[in-house]
Structure formats: C-alpha cells, structure tokens
Amino acid sequence: MKQFSLASVLLAMTLGTQAYAAEPNLYPTKVGTIDELRPISDFCGTKPIKVAYSSGISSDPWRKISRREFELEAAKCKNITDVRYTDAQGSVEKQISDITGLAAQGFNVIIVYPDGGESLLRAMSQATKMGAKVVPFYGGTSYPGKAGKDYVAMVTNDQGLEGKMAAEWIAKELNGQGNIIYLGGAAGATSVKSHFEGAMGVFKNYPGIKLLEPGPITTNWDRAQEQKIMTSLLAKHEKIDAVMSDYGIGSMGALRAFEIAGRPIPLWTTRDGNEVACFWYSHKDANPKFQLFTTSAGTWLTRIALRKGVAAAEGIDNDEPSIFHDPVIDNTTSSDPKVKPICDPDLPPGAHVSTFTMTKSELQDVFK
User: Fold this and answer.
1) Residue 347 within any structural domain of the chain
2) Comparing C-alpha atoms, which of 302, 308, 352 is closest to residue 113?
3) 64 and 200 inside one domain
4) Is residue 236 included in any domain, yes or no?
5) Is 64 within a domain?
6) What's the whole-model pTM score?
7) Where does residue 314 rank: exposed (0-12), middle (13-18), buried (19+ CB within 10 A)?
8) Do 277 and 362 reside in the same domain of the chain?
9) Which residues contact 13 (CB under 8 A, 6 or more apart)?
C-alpha cells in the first residue's frame, strides 16, 4: 500500500479547500430590487478578459438600448480588452452558432438574451464547458437549466409576477368581466411564457374574463406586425376590453390599429416607453376607457448580467440580486404621482423612462 505522510495529506486538504474557496458566489437565486445594485468597479478585477453579448434579434429600440447599456458598462473595466455583439437576425440556429463560436474564440464572458428559449440551453452549457462564463438574462424565473452548471445565473425580472400584477389590475378595472387580447413576442420565448402564465393564474379566478385568442399571439415584438395583427383582430372581435403586451414600444403598432379603425382604445398593460406615455396623453380624453399600466422595460439587466459574468471570470463574489421585482412605472388609475406617465419630448419615442442607468444624452445618442 502506498504510504502518505501527514504533511502531504494536510497539504492536499489545504489545496483542495483553496480551490473550492476560489469559486465565487454569484447569488443566482437572490431576489431583490434595484436599490441593491453595485458599481462594476467592485468586480472588474485585474485579469484581461473579453466579453460578448449574444442577441436573437436587434431591430427594436429595446435591443438597441440594452446593447448600449452593455457597452457603456464594459467600458468601465480597463481590463476588458474586447467587446463583441452578435445578432442572430431571428434565427435560433444562428444564435446557437454565435454562442458556441464566441466561446471557441476565447470570449471569457458571454451574456445571452435567450430569444430561442430552451433551444439555446445546450449551446450555453457547451460554451460553459469550454470555459466561458455564460449569463442568460431576461429569460424568466422558470428558465430551464441549472445555475453553476449550464450557466452562471439567470439575471431576470420576475416576469410571472409582472403578468400577475397586470392581470390583477385588469380584473379590478373590469370588475371581473371582459374580453382580453394577449400580444406576445417571439414564438417560444420564455419571458413571454412566464408573463402569460402569471396573468392566466389570475384570470382563472375570474370566469367572466375571456381570452379572445388562445395563448400569447406571436408578434416578434415588431410594431408593424402588431399593427397588422391587431387590425385583423379588430375585424374579428366587436368587443375588446383590455390588451396585454410585454413590450410597450412594439404595442404602439396595436394602438395605432385602434386609432386607424376608429375603435375606442381599451385598458392597456405593457412595459414602459416614452412613445406609449405620450400617446396616452394625446388620446386619453377621446378614449375615457384607455387606462395604462406599465412596469419597467428592464434594459439595464444587461449591466447586471455583465457584472455577474465579469465577477465569475475574475473569481470575485457578486451579491447583487439575480432576480428583480420590477417597479410599476405607469398606473393612470392611481392617485400616486410617482406612477403618473412621463412623456419627455426631449427623448426619442423609443426611449424608456425606466432606463435609470443612462443619461438623457446617452439615450438620445442611441437613436442618432
């Protein structure tokens, strides 16, 4: 039998403990608010690293703002030597290739907007095995996979809670009776699935509330598609009492469809957008049933995703929340001045008032 000295055993135990301790804690299940955020300087470290952002699409204003958030945040770490952005142009297969390709090119951190839903999990897991710190974001709290194994953490707002809040508001305003349209985004997107399921969990308690079309209606978060779809729905349904959407600027297309058809605009729940707030102010008097309820668009989640990834790559703990309870931005039925819609003529229509992490000039630059 091979003999081991006490000293060698103790050394092995010490090294093992050090290796285990070197694994940073990224708090993947921590729930919190934006009040608990920290500057990226706490996590930059000193090791040179390359970071990337993989997106399924990039055409809408939300993607443009979230990309700029990512780039501005990365610029704060002097040791980040390369910043890359990939656009899959609506192709799940291309986004899968983008993720694994970035890992193969030696990118240390890859944040991912999982437009392809669960289909991207294998690629993220593979990139993780290749040594990249992969951080999906905005995928909802029920996204598959395991934090620490398939990816670092899912950084997301609690979309199920947002759907629940919006549905409760609608149920209250309609006194439990009415016809609903639910406009989704990309087919299979887990963010839409979570939001929709949160809303349906409320509506099941109100037999007088009817969903006019089954499931989330796929719109790809594109305002032109939303206008076309809503125009068709208006011709099909005589009575629509509320519309739910998980993207405010995209739903502007649907709002325009009501306006063009000369139909009364109903209750509307979505995420905040400057154009949405301005539209409400200009149309509320002629449409007394047009009330607005929005939550934060969450473009700033790219910053937290990047910070989690950088901390993981640098071996530094990051105790910021990974799951956020988004604040209500607009509620036109409330007397609270804090949730009164803000229409800012100095900001582009596609801007989000809830983008608290960017200055007005930075937001303006996104749309130049």
Assistant:
1) yes
2) 302
3) no
4) yes
5) yes
6) 0.88
7) buried
8) yes
9) none
Phi, psi of 279, deg, nearest 5? -65, -40
pLDDT for position 117: 85
Which token pair is 353? 């008032």
238-270 pLDDT per residue, tens: 999 999 998 988 999 999 999 999 999 999 999
If one counts the domains in the chain, the total is 2
What lies within 8 Å, CB to CB, of 122 at 6+ separation is 96
User: For residue 217, what are the domain limits?
Assistant: 159-297+330-366
Report the CATH number at residue 153: 3.40.50.2300
- C-alpha gyration radius of the chain: 22
Instruction: Examine the domain organization and report whether 207 and 340 are in the same domain.
Output: yes
Q: Fill in the amino acid letter for 148.
A: G
Q: Which residue has the tokens 């549905």?
A: 167
The predicted-structure confidence for 103-142, as pLDDT tens digits, reads as follows 999 999 999 999 888 999 999 999 999 999 999 999 989 8
Q: How many Cβ atoms sit within 10 Å of the Cβ of residue 72? A: 15
Both 220 and 351 in a single domain? yes
Query: How many residues would you count in the chain?
Result: 368
